[in-house]
Amino acid sequence: NSSESHNCAKSILTSDRLQIVVTLSEFFNETWEEANCANCLKNNSEGLSNYTEEFLDLFNKSLTCFEHNLQGQGIDLSPNNYTEVCKNCNDTYTKLNDLYNHLQRMNRQGGESAHSAHLCIDVEDAMNITRKLWSRTFNCSLPCSDTVPVIAVSSFILFLPIVFYLSSFLHSKQKKRILILPKRIQSNANLVNIQEKYS
């Protein structure tokens, strides 16, 4: 039927009691939007964006590195001894992590896909899997590059009260205490002498 009238579409799509075509269509559209799938594609949805392809390539390299280094350590690998994985896969994981952080920043500003929201679910899930393997399974960690600035700022803040009290002590005028002698009646000895004269 070549007719595009609303009645024709309604009769075809909603003719059954369950309205299965409409329900499925709405389900897939909602899933597509909630998963932010458009953020992995180019503007005209011709294919994956360049950054998504680069990320998935690094993701596959990271998993291959993990698997290769696990096989090289033998069968009797203790649960906490993954030093080879941490050492040999550090560069690949760091590149993947940096690219993911870059994609997040780009996506907030509206990147290649022109949809500013979260990254698509495939990229987020891939990064979650990699981070879970890296930190929980292999107990690896990246050295924190912000250590020096954090220590410097903390030391400065801890040093502030000392500077404040020292400067207030040095710049305040020290008032000397002046003792005020009370004005009293002269000693009682004079009164006793006067009373003796009259008695």
Describe, in short, the structure shown.
This protein has 199 residues and is mainly alpha-helical. It has helices at residues 6-13, 20-34, 50-72, 83-88, 90-108, 121-137, 147-171, 188-198.
What does this entry look like structurally?
This protein is an all-alpha fold and 199 residues long. The chain has a domain at 8-137. Helices cover 62% and strands 0% of the residues. The chain has eight helices and no strands. Helix 3 runs antiparallel to helix 5, helix 3 (50-72) packs parallel to helix 6 and helix 5 runs antiparallel to helix 6 (121-137). The relative contact order is 0.09. This is OSTM1 protein. One of its GO terms (cellular component) is cytosol. InterPro entries: Osteopetrosis-assoc_TM_1 (IPR019172). It holds the Pfam family OSTMP1.
